[in-house]
Each structure stands twice: as C-alpha cells, then as structure tokens.
Amino acid sequence: MMLAIFSRQRERPGPLEYTRQFWLRLMVFTTMTMLYAPIVGLVVFSFNDSKRNIVWRGFTFDYYLKAWHNDGLIDAFVNSLTIAVIATLISTIIGTSVALILWRFRFPLKPIYEGTMALPIVVPEICMGVAMLVFFSRVGWPSGGPWPLNLSAITIAHISFCFPFVAVVIRARLSGFNREFEEASRDLGANEWQTFRHIIFPFIRPGLISGALLAFTLSIDDFIITFFTSGPNTVTFPVKIYSMVRFSITPEVNAASTILIVITIITTLLAMWFQTSSRFYKLSKEGAP
Amino acid sequence: MNNWKDSKSVFITTFLPGTVWLTAFFLVPLGFVWVMSFGEKYGIIDIVITWTPNNYLRAVESIYLGIIWKSVWISALVTALCLMVSFPIAFAVSFAKDKWKPILLLIIILPFWINLLIRTYALIAVFRTRGHVNFGLEWLWEKANAGLILIGLGKHQFLGEKFQPLAMLYNDFSVIAGLTYVYIPFIVLPIYAMLERLDRSYIEASLDLGASQIRTLFSIVIPLTLPGIIAGVILVFIPCLGSFVIPDLLGGTNSQMIGNVIERQFKSANDWPFGAALSFLLMYVMFGVLAMRSLLTVRKSEMKV
Amino acid sequence: MASRSNHDLSRRHFLKNTSAIAAGLTFHPFKATAKEEKRLNFYNWDTYIGETTLDDFKSKTGIVTQMDLFADSDELFTKLREGNPGYDVIVPANDYVERMNVAGILMPIDHDKIPNLSNINKLFLDADFDPGRKVSLPYMWGTLGIGYNKGNVSTPINSWKVLYDSDEYSGRISLLSESADVIHMALKYIGHSLNTTNPAHFKQVEELVIAQKQHIKVFAPDNGQDLLASSEVDIAQEWNGDIAQLMTEDDAFTYVVPKEGGLIWQDCLCVPKGAPHPENAHAFINYVFDADVGAEIANSIQYATPNEAARGKLGDDYKLNPAIFPPDEVIAKCESTLYLGEEVQRIIEDTWTRIKAS
Predict the structure, then answer these.
(1) Domains in chain B, ordered, with CATH?
(2) Confidence of residue A69 (pLDDT cuts 50, 70, 90)
(3) Which of A86, B149, C140, C183 has its CA 20 to 30 A from that of A118?
(4) Does domain A70-275 bear CATH number 3.20.20.60?
(5) CA B66 → CA B198, C278, C354, distances in Å?
(6) Size of the A and C interface in Cβ pairs below 8 Å
C-alpha cells in the first residue's frame, strides 16, 4: 500500500530502493540539515569581524591569520593527529583479536572475559583519567623525551579505551559470518593464516573500517583522559581549545576549527582515492553472503 | 564455536594482545583507584588506605542515588532519540547505490571529527537567546506580524506584543539535544555495519508474501540487525551516563548529572577516595547489566547449536 | 596541621624524588651542573599575559616560553598534586597558594634573584597566606562583584540581593559556577564572614540559593562577560577584570562591588617543586616585574597590578578606573579567602551538590 502512494512518480523506485523513496529522503535531509546547521554557522562566523562573535559585523580573514600563526594551536593539532593515527592503528589490531577470540572460541570464564573487555566502555572517563594519572606517576613513566615519544602516555591511555569499542563493532559484524566458508577453506587445505587473510578478513573489512573510524573519532576528540595524562609540550587540540574557550570564544577558534575540517576532508578524500574504488566495492559485495 | 583447545596457537595469538594490554594499562591503573576508594584523605594530598567502607556508604545516600536516577533517565532518552534518528540514516546509506556509500558515510561522520567542545559552543550559538534559531524565528515573527498588520488585524496582537525568544539553552532540553547531537555516530556505524551484511532477499521475500514495509521493518529487519542495535545502544547509553562536559556547558541550574558530581570530587572537592567510590558504584551497576547481557547471549547461542 | 607519620614521609619522599629524578632525567640528559636549556614551561590562565610579553622575553633572553593553559585553579592543583609534570612557573590564586604550600608542592623563591621586586607595592610583600612571600610573588589582584547592563536595570545595582534573594530580574541573572565563589558571596550577603566554619551558616546559604535557583539562568563557568555581551543575562556575578575588558568595548556595562562586601583575591607567581628550569623561572618572574613589561601586561588584561612602577606608567583610564582599583572603603568590606582545612572544603562541596541537585 505504501508503494501505491509513490506510483505517481516518474520512475517508480523498486521495493528495496529505499534511498529513492521520498519520505526517507526527507527524513535524512532534515536530519543532515540539523546536524550541519551549527557547523555551517561555525564556519560562517569564523569570518566575522567581531571579537565577541555574536552578531555579524563584517567579513575578515584576520582570525585565520591569527590561528595560522598560533604556534600553540598548531602544535596541539599535530599532537592530536599523531596520537589519533597511532592509537587507531594499534586499537584496531587489538580490537580485532579480541573480537575474533570472542566469536570463535569457547573457553572457561568466557563471560567474565567478555565483561572485562567491556570495562573501558563502562568506566567513567574521569575515573580512567585519574587512574592513568596515578599509574603513570607511581610507575615513573618518563614524560619528556623527543617528539613523538613524549606522547606515549597519552597514546597508551587512548588505546586502552579505544580498542573495546572497535571490538564491539567488529564482533557485531562477525556474528553474521557463515562459518561454512571458513570450514570449506580449511577443507580445501588452507591453513589458519590463509583462511583469515582471504576469507575472514575481507568479510570483516567494513567492520574494520567502521571500527577504525570510531577509534579515530574517539581519540581525536578525547578531552578528559588526555587532560589527565598530558603535560607541558604534550597539549592536544581539545585540551587547548577547552582552555581557550573558557574565557571567550573569539572567531579565532572558529577559524582553527574550519581549517581542521578542511584538512580532514582533504585527507579522507585522498585516502579514498588511493583505495581504488573497484576493489573496495568488489569486497563489500563479497561481504554479503 | 570451537573449543579453545582445538586450535591452541590461534587461541594464544588472539588472546595475548588484548589481555596483556588491558591488564597492564587498564586493570592495574584501575586497581590503584579501586584501592583508593577504600582510603581516607589524610592532609591535603595524601591518602591512607584504611579499608573503610565509609566512602561507599556515603555514595549510596539518597541525594546521590537521586542524581544517578536522573542521569539514567536522561541517558535513556538520549539513546532512544539517537536510535530513532540514526536508523533511517543507516538504512538510507546502506541501500544507496554503491558509489554513493563512502561519500554518504563521510558526510555523516564528518561533523563528529570536529572537536566536541567546538560543536558544543556551536550549539550554544544556535540555541541561545540571541542565537541562530531565535534570530530566524524572530524574522518569521516579524514577517507574520507585518502580514497581520497589512490585513488590518494588527491591533489585536495575535502574536503577542513582542517576540518572545525560545528558552532553548541552559536547561534540560539543551543537555538532551546536545548529548544526542554528540552521540549519533556511535549508533549509526554499528547499525550500518549490520545492515550491510543483511541479506536483501529476506526483505524481498517478506514483501512478496504480502507484508507491508512497516511490518517488514519490525518483523524482519530489526530482529536481524539486533546485534548492531544493541552494540549501538551500549556505545551510547553508558558513556552518556558518565558524561559531564556537555551538562556542564549547556546545562542550567538544575542540570546536574552524576558525571558532574564525580568530576567535582576529583577536582574542587579534592576528595579522591569518595570520587573513586562513586565511580565504582556506577561501574558495578553497569557491569552487572553487561554481564547479564552476555549470559543471555551465551544461553541463546547454546540453544541454537 | 596534623603531623605526618614516618611512613607517609618516606612514601612522599620517594614520590618526590622519583618525579624529580624523572623530570631531571628527561629534561637534563647530562648532569644538572650544565647550564639550563633555554626553555620555560609556563602554566597560566588563558590570555592572562600581555600580548607580546613572551615574544619580548625571548628577544631579550633567548628563552623560549611554552605557555600551557588551565581553566580553573582546581585543574592546576589536580595536575600538580601527584608530582610536577614539568612546569616551571604557575599562577595559582591566593587560597590555592596556601593549599599547595601546606601540601608541600611549592619551591621557595629566591628574592635575591629578583631585583625588580623593588617595583612592587610594599603592601604586597607580606601576606596572610604566605608570610614573607617565601613561595609566591604577587602577579595581579582584583575583586569579585557584579557586572551589569546599565540600560536594562531599573535602578543602579549595589547589593548582592538582586542575585541571591530577589525575583526582580528573574531569568536574567547569572552566578559563577565554582562552589566556593557562589557560597562565599552568599555568606557575605547574609552577613557572615566568608571564612566561617559554622555549618549552620552553610545551611542558610543552601536554603537561600535553592530558593533563588528558579530565577537564576545559569551558573556560568567564568564567561559571564560573554553572557552580558550577548544579552543572555543582564546581571552577572563576575571578576572585575573580565567586566573591565568588556567595558572598554561597550560602555553599556558597568561593575560594582556590592555594599555587603565582595572577595579580594590575588593571583601569584609560584615555582613548583621539580621545576626543570628554576633559573629561567626566576629570570622570567624578574622580567615580568619590570615596569614597562608590567605596564604592558596590566593594560592588556585590565586587572589591578601590584607593580607600582608599572602602574605609574599607565594612563588615568586605567589608574582611576573604579572597576580595576576600587576605593578604600570598598576594599575595607572585602575579604580574602583563607585555607581552612579539608573539612570545610567538604562542607562547601556537599552544600553545592545539594544545591545543584534540588
């Protein structure tokens, strides 16, 4: 009966072509507008010629120049990015191994293991931040050292809370895997590693990407845990922003954010371009059994 | 599911990374804090571990339980809102043409790579009395008013004497809206991952058999994507419960969540043992819920086999 | 304060030494007899320094200053209580100086290395919270009062009543968000000393603020001046310098210390124990106390400088600004916070939790 409503359309969307249906498009459009409106406002007001930045007073690039020359801001941003990249890589590896073991094996005390692996998700961030602070100071972790080694404390803390999230996402993906493929592969003589590489890994790849994206977002955005584990010369972007906006948010912060957004878009587009489209789509088609 | 003894080497390989890391860099630090929750303050910064239960006894006083209850309510509401908003989006992206998928995903993820504090301040600029929404509404009001005056109904002042801006900031509304805004991607990604591997033929079969789209949605799609939904719900509800930055920045005089109280214990109150006790209390509850869920899953999968 | 047991002495001793050694190892790969690296790690509030001060310091001495930011004194304290992560100069407020000193986190400052100390007003060379100024030196001082929009109030404000006990401007007022600030000023309004330790007084404050909460728009974390500027509120409890800065941009606003009295505070420069570059720290403090440098700082941030020589170099719009330099009778009614021990801190925090939860 729903389909009848849309029979007036020029080319009727098929029953599964949800994305072409009007109501879904409307819902998605509205949601995206609401998601982006504050950000568009943010970007637009970065050009505002007013220190208080409440009403529009005129167009200027001044704050971009200020942000560009703000060494502290740039250093903080580079730190954030470095930490996020390293943390994402390692978290994805650890998270995958955890997801695999939970999916594949029965072993004693498994529910306890599962629960413990979920602990980093459950623990309030501030509690974990304090725990890391206490830990690193009691253990005497070296906080100096050349870049990027001085970021090690923060990176370790980030990995600790990122990998369970990755594990959850990959596990959800794995639960749909048809084990017959795996058995067939083994019957045909492949060893464990080959099975993993050619059968399991391509299947979980969308999950890996989702999980990695999640880990990256968590790491680059993290404020509380980073705050407790950072010291001089290891300030990250959110921590820097937090202390800047406590007083008043001038368009300089908007400008810095806009630059960050632009860099993020460019980096991601590049990453996607390198990953040749045909290979990506072939694999994701393979993913659906 | 294999028994671990069947392929010991694989088991060890997948067992070691997570366990070693978790123990060294999570359980041990947490252990320090757990021990601290049984301690007492001694002087300004020293803590003596007297194994006293006082901190926990204080943590279950009615005032703190009340705050926890309120936080649970807000988190549940935020989770429900996130789910309602994210499901259509995940759906739309999953059923889009393949060449659009990465782009759509990117468009959804992008806002969430922008720093949380900045997004919160952007939200403030949208919600405040002289913010974008109120500016827009004021413009509409003036146009409508002008229209009324034009047709001679001006003096009745149907729309009120002056534009009344909406109070959208510094109250529970802004906290809930802010939290939803921040946590949406944590639901979209798991649901999308599940939808991706959903066998389309199930939906086709259901539609062929005469079920409506809505019935198909509730009877086929949702049960099949349930693991993704549950993953998403956990990824939102639990951090939301412990959040404090957004209630702090967007909330009014009444918006205090348990995260704010815990944060204060570690900072201005300088009462680390009590803060540790409060956080652990919260964690024990959440841990119990999670353990229950995993027990249920084990029983279900055992039944299936 | 209670005497420490030997057990704790040795534990803290161990901690201190470990962090000192760790800091030493990381920042001085060779023996400490070598000259200090030309770096300074400065931990400060945001924009709480002149616009060109750090660059000028570098031109003059070649020392590169890295300024990290904290958003409130609690943050500063939390960061340093488990050991100095590597900061040379920090800027705590007076009550935190006391607290940190009791906790043993601060290093004595060698006055001989600070010849420019002679520029400082003699009144500031001694203080209740740091007799003889052994561990801290004055940076800026000011008051806590009320900033408001002159055009949007019926009569000029002169009392805390309008914030704590009145529905006249319901929904158009804001208080600070630090427990101590709100509660101390409420105590002044009721008529008690803000350094009281009587739990009954705190109970009165609790009831007062809970009753008033419905009229308060928000507990603003130090951005009251933004709320005023954006017309979110018309009356805000705020620090004098923030309002003074606002006043230079827009003269619709003004600042007043209410008749019941306000808070007088002093931000100080301190050198925490375990600082990797104590020599540079002293050089920096000396530089800041220079008359011209002090004048530039004071002019940028619009707070009251204890540096007499610097003050002499500034114009009347700074020197005679009642928001920055309140008249003596106002100062007489203001009080400074003393550190009264952890029990009182706990009462304050519990009161605040109850206020926010009701």
Answers:
(1) 73-294 (1.10.3720.10)
(2) confident
(3) A86
(4) no
(5) 42, 49, 11
(6) 78
